[in-house]
Amino acid sequence: MQAVREVPDFAARYANLANARLGAAxxxxxxxxxxxxxxxxxxxEPSFDPDLYDDHGKYMDGWESRRRRDGGNDHAIIRLGGATxxxxxxxxxxxxxxxxxHAASLQGAYHTGEGLPADSDYRPLVAMSRLGPDAAxxxxxADDQPVTHLRLDMYPDGGIARLRVHGIxxxxxxxxxxxxxxxxxxxxxxxxxxxxxxxHYGNPEVILYPDKGLDMGDGWETRRRREPGFDxxxxxxxxxxxxxxxxxxxxxxxGNFPASCSMNGRLLEGADLAxxxxxxxxxxxSQFWPEIxxxxxxxxxxxxxxxxxxxxxxxPVSVVRFNIVPDGGISRxxxxxxxxxxx
Length: 343
Description:
Elements: H1 9-12, E1 15-16, E2 25-29, E3 53-54, E4 57-58, E5 63-64, E6 74-92, E7 103-109, E8 123-130, E9 136-140, E10 147-155, E11 159-160, E12 162-169, E13 182-183, E14 192-196, E15 201-202, E16 220-221, E17 231-249, E18 260-266, H2 279-286, E19 291-297, E20 303-307, E21 317-325, E22 329-330, E23 332-339
Antiparallel strand pairs: 1-12, 2-6, 3-4, 5-11, 6-9, 6-10, 6-12, 7-8, 7-10, 13-23, 14-17, 15-16, 16-22, 17-20, 17-21, 17-23, 18-19, 18-21
């Protein structure tokens, strides 16, 4: 049995960066007797097996401490993969019903030295808030200062299935004009998914991950199309740049890869930046974006590289619409180029 969670709009526009696959780690906990710390930041949604037990008792897919008999409360320290401006938080108690904490809070600190931040380095991100059983608890965060570490306190003890922290990475190297080609679409540079027409299978966000896809579920896949047309996904680059190569990876997609792909894009600036917060207007506008990559055939379970000679050389772009014809799935999309200054 697996939890199904809807992500609110205020969080969906940002990537979850409390993610072990993006370099995050739970580096300290006061106690993890019933549930290991690493489960707190797994990318997979929490699951529950009513018949599964281990040496410590009932197996729970989350971080769970023993019952406290001495007062106080338990906490965990999470080191993010890089400095992040936090925009949304989910403290999820999925499947914790008689063993969930009554409340939780989240603090953040910016620390680049050795060891862990001092207690005095932390500042509030989510005030102490009541928690309920088997539920997602979403919080919108208004804090523009980056953090590298998080402190999750639960009161007094119990279990939390997942901590999701959506935000903007700010630690990626900011390339200067004219430097070597870099992966401008990487989620670690601030690349993000802005919209798509369909995502029946998988998780669209992972196509911007830096690693290789794990399996067919680790990618973006659309339903079988029964009408004319094609499917598409819109990506914001982490930094505006001039593209010089594109990699489309159909790893693990063998009977369901797209027949072909193409790409359009443009530079958003000035008043047009408002499109980033208006999905319907962005979708409409994307129909008129110049073509960057003309139609290219795709094959099963393979990396497809397209170099500068196959791109239009349309100049700097900040957003692209990647099209697949007629439908299917891809594992990764990587857009390489030279970053240019926003001005």
